[in-house]
Amino acid sequence: MAKKSMVEREKKRQKLVARDAAKRAALKAIISDQSKPMEERFRASLKLAQLPRNGSATRLHNRCQLTGRPHAYYRKLKISRIMLRELGSAGQLPGVVKSSW
Fold first, then answer.
1. Rounded distance, CA 34 to CA 8, Å?
2. How far is residue 101's CA from residue 94's CA, in Å, rounded to a whole number?
3. Residue 72's domain is classified under what CATH number?
4. What is each CA distance from 13 to 61, 78, 89, in whole angstroms?
């Protein structure tokens, strides 16, 4: 099980990303628009730099929904490999059977 502080930190980042997504997209559109004057694009880049770093989507890290484990994460199931094995062995995942021969 991951430390609760790390899981909570990740939740906080997710909230910040959701809150700042529209602002960041608008500023990035202004910055990448070559038809705008250079001063306006520069002001937009300064405003983007003033936004909190944790509001950027690249700061997010996928974590297991059950344990908070950051590694060996299956995106489709949103769980780690360890929980996949445990839930599959217990028969709690439909269509998953632990192989044996």
1. 40
2. 21
3. 4.10.830.10
4. 9, 17, 33
Q: Are residues 21 and 70 in the same domain?
A: no
Could you read off the pLDDT of 16-62 as tens digits, one per residue? 999 999 999 999 999 999 999 999 999 999 999 999 999 999 999 99
**Domain that includes residue 3, residue range:** 1-61
Question: How many domains does one find in the chain?
Answer: 2
> Per the domain annotation, does 99 fall within a domain?
no
In what helix (H) or strand (E) does residue 79 lie, and over which residues does it extend? strand 79-80
Q: What is the pLDDT of residues 60-90, one digit of tens each?
A: 999 998 998 999 999 999 999 999 999 998 9
Tokens coding 29:
């559109």
The rounded Cα 85 to chain-centroid distance in angstroms is: 24
Give the containing element (helix H, strand E) for 74: strand 73-74
Contact at 8 Å (CB) between 11 and 59? Answer: no
Residue 74 pairs in a beta bridge with 79
